[in-house]
Fold:
Amino acid sequence: MKAFLKLIRWQNLLMVILTMVLMRYAVIAPVLSKIGVILIIGSGEEMPMSLQFPWYDFVLLVAATVLITAGGYVINDYFDIKTDLINKGKVIVGTKIPRRQAILWHSVFNIAGVAAGFYISYKAGYIWLGSMFLVVSGLLYFYSASYKRQFLIGNIIVALLTAMVPMLVAFYEWPALYKYYAANAIRLPNINFILYWVGGFALFAFLTNLIREIIKDIEDFEGDIVYGRNTVPVVIGVLSAKVVSVCLITITIILLYLTWHFFINDLITLVYITSAIVFPLGYVIYKLLGNGEKKHLHSASRMMKIVMLTGILYSIVVKIILTWNLF
Structure:
């Protein structure tokens, strides 16, 4: 059981669940509550908007996302046996879990995930949305089999798929809101704003995951060069890959402060992003510019995971600010 949980990266799956739950209940729900609508059947007074995508369908959406993500981790370890032996000195697939069993789990996870995705898309009235789950399943397979060996393509694919996790919540909530309030409200308010809010978290997830993927490639440089993988550090060199990472971190920090200045502009947010996100990113830069030991790169990679977590946890700050009118 312990080997199986490591294989599917249970901590990362919990992160996926946390992200989707917080996007729905700590971002979209409180933002909606600040928008008033007058219902056709009612007292004529403004009522706050509320979530319309059923909670049980949302649970299925989370389950579908987690299942396909788990399948991606399984197939990734299946194709990475040789390089992991060099970079990590140990593997799970082929030792603790047979290769055939790993392929079986990959198939089960993907079939169940895609089926759940099409079902909730059908329930939502947009069955074509289910094709996203099929496409993601295929991308994760070809990423492990081929794309991760190509310059930058694999990094961008993983970063985009990570950014899709929060966006999925908005993709399914938006049409449910539109259908309900278009039929039941005297005037349909602009609900595109939920895409902007969640899109900010998605952009942050994309940038931080892209940075971490490049740092991981630097850390795995030895195994990748032996087996001819055209990762960023293999193609342009370790030093240049570090420079790229530092530049992306700098861009992320600049975008954070620009977003705060132009769209949020409250003291609580400023303190949070500075202490919980920018300072840790500064630590990552410090480790990247160090002597290049593998343990320093590993520390930088782990810190990026913490930054990704604190970025998602900012959604709780959003809920507090909106609930208590602290903006």
About this structure: The chain has a mean pLDDT of 92.
